[in-house]
Amino acid sequence: MTNEGRNFYQEFEVFSSKTDGGQVQHQFSLLAPNEEIALVMAQENFMRREPAADIWVVKRSHVRKMTQEEKESLQRLDNKEYRTTKGYGYLRKKWREYEQNILDEKEIMSWGEDKQK
Amino acid sequence: MSMTLSYDRLSEEEKHRRFLDRIEKGEKIEADDWMPDDYRQTLIKLISMHGISEIMGALPEKEWVPKAPSLRRKLGIMAKVQDEMGHGQLLLRVAEDLMKPYGKTREEIMQDLFRGDLKFHNVFHMPAPTWGDAGLIGWLVDGAAIITQTNMLKASYGPYARALKRICAEEVFHAQHGEAIILALAEGTDAQRAMIQDAIDRWWESLLMFFGPATSTTTGTSKQDITIKYKIRTKTNEQLRQDFLDKYIPRVLSLGLTIPDETLRYDKTEEKWVYKQPDWSEFKNIVRNNGPKSKDRLNLRINAYENNAWVREALSPDEAVV
Amino acid sequence: MKSPQEVNADPAYKQALTELLYQLADDDFVLAFRGSEWLGLAPHIEEDVAFSSINQDTMGHAAMYYQLLEDLGEGKADDLAHGRKAFERKNAILLEEVNGPGHYLKEPYYDWAFAVVRHYFYAQAKKVKIDSLKNSSYEPLAQAAVKINMELYYHLLHWKTWFTQLASAKGEAPERMKKAVVKVCQDFAGVLTLGPKADEIAGFHLIEDENQLKQRWVNEMEKVFSPSGLQLPEVEMVRGDGRNGIHTTDLDTALETLSEVYRQDPAASW
Predict the structure, then answer these.
(1) A4 and chain C: CB distance < 8 Å anywhere?
(2) Residue ranges per domain, chain B?
(3) Which stretch of DSSP H or E encloses residue A15?
(4) Which of B32, C107, C97 minimizes the C-alpha distance to A64?
(5) Residues 200-219 of B with CB under 8 A from C
(6) If you measure CA to CA, which chain A residue comes closest to C54?
(7) Burial (0-12, 13-18, 19+ Cβ within 10 Å), A90
(8) Does the residue C95 lie in any domain?
(9) Which residues of B182-215 are buried (b: 16+ CB within 10 A; e: fewer)?
(10) How confident is the model at residue A117 (pLDDT cuts 50, 70, 90)?
(11) Vertex B16, ends A78 and A69: CA angle to 5°?
(12) pLDDT per residue over B102-126, tens digit each?
């Protein structure tokens, strides 16, 4: 054989979600010759004792990771309250003067629910 | 993409200083991060030995998988030995990523093992002639392994710490699986009780050896200083051995079993166990693949690997698929 | 039939039911035993882990069938699994066959092609039977079949993946697979048959008629064989019908190993 079986050991990253529609999380990596074999190895290698509702396998070379230098680009100053509700907390007091409640996250996220009588 | 290559421009000394800083702060080092050579080498040596020991560790128990005495025990020991292979998988993946810069893969790990360059743990060179040994391995050998592995759960190397977290979670099952076998035997017939006592007598010295020599003067080499310096682990070999004795001696004695060391005692003023030293020259001999079962187990592994080479060749893509 | 009590009141029904249960239990048990001998010896570490899960599932299914027999008063499940003599066993001869030359602890020249083909063919046959058993006239068996069915999807996917990939791979693999297919087919009729009480078993609607089951299995296999240009040979029973208690020395040595500890004291608690 050309490579004496060495290329059998291709690297795959394994991801899974625990519940239907749940977030997909990285689990671990395994070696397999192709993605079909990788897929049939994945659950038993990493999720023998936990539920899995979906599994993804990705060739590692298809994952563009950050280098250590690039990770430095992820740093942020802690001065961005204007992006979050934290920067608008004073509205609660303001609205109270008009006898209104603040439309906070809890309130707004509840609007999608069907009203029950 | 243009990036500020600030890290790349640092001198080697500066990188090394920053690396130590990160470890000091409790940050995790990842596979692609800069790391000093001796850190990488130490990890490769430690983790490839740990990984291959799991794979070789499946073999002494393997004998008892088809022989287990009930359906429940057959299922339990299958799952337990499966986990050993699974732990080997996790650890070898971590080691393989560390070896990548040297162009080494799982193939080289296997060849290193077969040539005798990659050692495996002393306990897995020993015979396991009865069902009592199958129970004892789960109880005390895994007990010893839990002591050393939990000591590294906070290892500075992130991938190793993550693998160990998975492994230790499964070790809890292993410990209970071992205890279930042992308690059934301890509460059983005289012949069953004798089976465990024999196993303890057979394994005691190996269990003491499991943690390695107290200092490098005992055997000439010991990696414990460098692993502690780099925060891969926190306790010394002797501290781990004492932890093991603390946890397990009372349990052994509570079952009316004895430990084959008349000199064994707890020194209250020193707060430590005093025990008869195992034969450390024999330890060296064993881990050089001259133990009673070393050759058989290596041959079994070589035989299986080579006998199945056609499968890997058949499915090996001509070009590494990118 | 809803319960063991009802069954015990009808000797003819009970005889057919226990016959079928022994076949199902012994098939799964002995194949899971053969699979467990592979532990640590598979071509690939990741596969070792996956294969072991399938063996655990299969042994778990055997335990469920032995439990149904225990409920019918046949004896304790562990004794049924470990204590019965070879001539009392109802498993197909193909499933007791050794994995290859050698011993599981010494020079095992185990044949991965044979493992893949035997397990793949068996998983498909089991799927066909389980689908039929879901409508069994014995309700506890029908309920067991619904549960067992859940795990068969993975077994089939796993073995089919290995089978199709190796059968169409480069090098010596296709030739090895072809040889394994021929070997497995020589005795595979022994897996598909319901044995000497086949008529009673089908007559009591415990499972469908064996010819129907066989045809369904052939149809499923053809879906994989035809497109790949492979030939599915006629299945035979060259070495005899295990359902009749006819077995090879491979079963004797298997029983010796799997009951070695149990036999030291069958009355003891382990």
Answers:
(1) no
(2) 26-212+223-303
(3) strand A10-17
(4) B32
(5) none
(6) A44
(7) exposed
(8) yes
(9) bebbbebeeebbebbbebbebbbbbbbbbbbbbe
(10) low
(11) 45
(12) 999 999 999 999 999 999 999 999 9
- The predicted pLDDT at position B320 comes to 55
Q: How confident is the model at residue B215 (pLDDT cuts 50, 70, 90)?
A: confident
Query: Does the pLDDT at position B6 exceed 80?
Result: no
Gyration radius (Cα) of chain B, Å: 21
In CATH, A8-62 is 3.10.20.520: yes
Residue B225 — pLDDT band, cuts 50, 70, 90?
confident
* A108–chain B nearest CA distance, Å: 38
Average pLDDT in chain A: 92
Looking at the structure of chain C, the number of domains it has is 1
Domain B26-212+223-303 sits in CATH 1.20.1260.10: yes
pLDDT at A1: 41
Residue A37 and residue C161: Cβ atoms within 8 Å?
yes
Chain C CB contacts of A48 below 8 Å? 49, 53
Q: Look up the CATH number of the domain holding residue C128.
A: 1.20.1260.10
Which residue in the set A8, A34, A45 is minimally distant from C50, CB to CB?
A: A45
Task: Considering chain A, tell me which residue range(s) the CATH 3.10.20.520 domain(s) occupy.
Answer: 8-62
Mean pLDDT of chain C: 97
What residue in A sits closest to C159 (Cα-Cα)? A40
CA separation for the pair C62, B78 (Å, rounded): 15
Environment class of C253 (CB within 10 Å of its CB; exposed 0-12, middle 13-18, buried 19+): middle
**B66–C44 CB contact, under 8 Å:** no
pLDDT of residue C255: 98
Q: If you average pLDDT over residues A72-92, what whole number do you get?
A: 92
Q: What is the pLDDT of residues C86-142, one digit of tens each?
A: 999 999 999 999 999 999 999 999 999 999 999 999 999 999 999 999 999 999 999
B300 HSE (CA, 13 A, CB side): 25
User: Is B187 within 8 Å of chain C by CB?
Assistant: yes
Is C270 a domain residue? no
Q: Which of the two residues, A114 and C174, has the higher pLDDT score?
A: C174
| B106 contacts chain A (CB < 8 A) | yes
Distance from CA of C160 to the nearest CA of A (A): 10
Which of C45, C56, C264 comes nearest B75 by C-beta?
C56
- Are A10 and B320 inside 8 Å of each other by CB? yes
- pLDDT computed for residue B2 by the predictor: 44
C173 → chain A, closest CA residue: A1
- Outline where chain C has alpha helix (H): 4-8, 11-37, 45-71, 77-82, 93-96, 112-133, 139-167, 173-192, 198-203, 210-228, 249-258, 260-264
Q: What is the ipTM of this complex?
A: 0.97
- All residues of chain C having their beta carbon less than 8 Å from the beta carbon of residue B303 are 107-109
Taking the CA of residue B209 and the nearest CA in chain C, the distance in Å comes to 25
Domain region containing C229:
4-264
Q: Do C36 and B78 touch (CB under 8 A)?
A: yes
User: How far from chain centre, in Å, is Cα C182?
Assistant: 18
Which residues does chain C have within 8 Å of residue A43's beta carbon, measured at their own beta carbons?
A: 154
Does A71 have pLDDT greater than 60? yes
| Percent of chain C residues past pLDDT 90, beyond the cut | 96
